[in-house]
Task: structure prediction
Amino acid sequence: MTPVVSAEIVAGALILLAVLALTYIFVRRRLLASGAPLMLCALQPHGRSQYRLGLLRFSGSALEWFTLIGPSPRPARTWERPRLELGPPGLPPAAIAGLPEAVTVDCHYGSDSFSLALAPSAYTAMRSWLESSPPGFNVNVA
Result:
């Protein structure tokens, strides 16, 4: 086999690998977005200095956070609606890549503390979702 043919085989394999990776990312994103609102969000666990970009999804009774580019179609973190507490929004101390006009919010879930960085409209949606009645709960409205 000549070096040119070997180089063509390697280049073809790399192109095929790139196409497969992009296809998987697209299909995963479509599956995550099916049936529930999905938004870009950054997570900063307590004690860490950097934010990790990911996707935030509201399900009926939980808030789910997925890594932005990852192999798993399952959420990396899940927070149940009744136990999640949000603090007031604030400005991040430094710019967050991927979220240029983000607001940060300190969150508490039991004994776990973390920060989320979201677009202002996404924060409003999350606050409304958290304060509304969960599906299936009978609420008397006067």
Notes: The mean pLDDT is 86. Helices lie at 3-33, 120-131. The beta strands are 38-45, 52-58, 62-67, 77-80, 84-90, 103-109, 112-118. The first strand starts at residue 38 and ends at 45.
